[in-house]
Amino acid sequence: MAISLVAGISSAVGYAITATTFSLTKMFVAFAAGAGLSSLSRALAPKPNMNASLRGQTITNRDPVGTRKVVYGKTRVGGNIVFMESTGTNNDDLYLVIAIAGHEIESYEAVYFNEEKVYENAAYVSDWDTYIDLHFYYGTDTQTANSALVSASNNKWTNAHTLNGVAYIVVKLTYDQDKFATGLPNISCIIKGKKVLNVGGTATAWTDNAALIIADYLRDTKYGLGESASNIDSASITTAHGVCDEDVNLSGGGTQKRYTINGVIDTATPIKDNIELLLGSMSGRLIFTGGKFQLFAGNYVAPTVTLSESDVVGEITIATKQSRRSQYNVVKGAFISEEENYTPADYPSQRVL
Predict the structure, then answer these.
(1) CA 163/CA 291 separation, integer angstroms
(2) What digits encode the pLDDT tens for the residues 120-149?
(3) Pairing of strands 330-331, 334-337
(4) SS3 sequence, 242-270?
(5) Cα(121)–Cα(108) distance, rounded to whole angstroms?
(6) What distance in Å separates the CA atoms of residue 333 and residue 351, rounded to the nearest whole number?
(7) What does each C-alpha distance from 336 to 149, 211, 262 come to in angstroms?
(8) Coil, strand, or helix at residue 78?
(9) What's the CA gap between 304 and 81, in Å, rounded?
(10) Of the candidates 237, 279, 287, 229, which has an alpha carbon nearest to the alpha carbon of residue 259?
């Protein structure tokens, strides 16, 4: 089910855009034109492929009916601008409220303007603290509205606008023709996303373990399948967790975990499709048997049964040739590369001989 991100504050957003004129005229014109063309393109375009979805993950939009995103693991994401207001003596300051995720997150690691890092490790990069002011909200149910924005917006953003349960950032931009020469920058963040139950089911914490994340999505009553924990086989989750957590030796030295999930789930996508997407990250299978869901991560399991000719109940047929349509000789793929600043990259092509 698609869940609107800005229900209850859309009127405030509309008022903010029409009631004021910000001195960054070129910035607004470019942004408005881009938003309009983007909406038209989405209406006319076919369903995007996976690679296109990866490329759109770091884009920040302004969409009054934007859907909430679920962020698992660690990745770089854009957001949805839910409030925009210019302030200051000459309208030199612009406030933005950008929703990042529809749930509580672990941390904000860095902030980018376009491809330039402006904030990292709780500190501004270079002289950016002169031109921007960032305030981070983690999506708790007790967070309060940003007092500076409430005051600067003349209560267009009020103390009631807490966005509880939504991780968001408040961005204040102070106009400078050199820093913002190309207009309003695309703002994105590297974050550690949703906290999930540990393998024992006793506490929540951040992880990128694929098995624990899939189990969380199965139980999630707000965005996921909403299945009762009693209907999920805990033993299979524990086993799959262990497989995902295995260290794999790398050819260049060092190790990495066998299966992790670091990415974004869109609540507009059918739950079944999201589950299949998550399972693909661990070459996994989800089976419902005996009244419970069982989760299996891709790994070799030694056979425990030996079959002989006496077990064969029908004729044996052998296919000696496949049609050219079903054959392939090269396998390609795309992924979000942490080494390349969380941008889409291609796997090295694997040729099948």
Answers:
(1) 38
(2) 999 999 999 999 999 999 999 999 999 999
(3) unpaired
(4) HHHCCEEECCCCCEEECCECCEEEECCCC
(5) 8
(6) 12
(7) 34, 20, 9
(8) coil
(9) 56
(10) 279
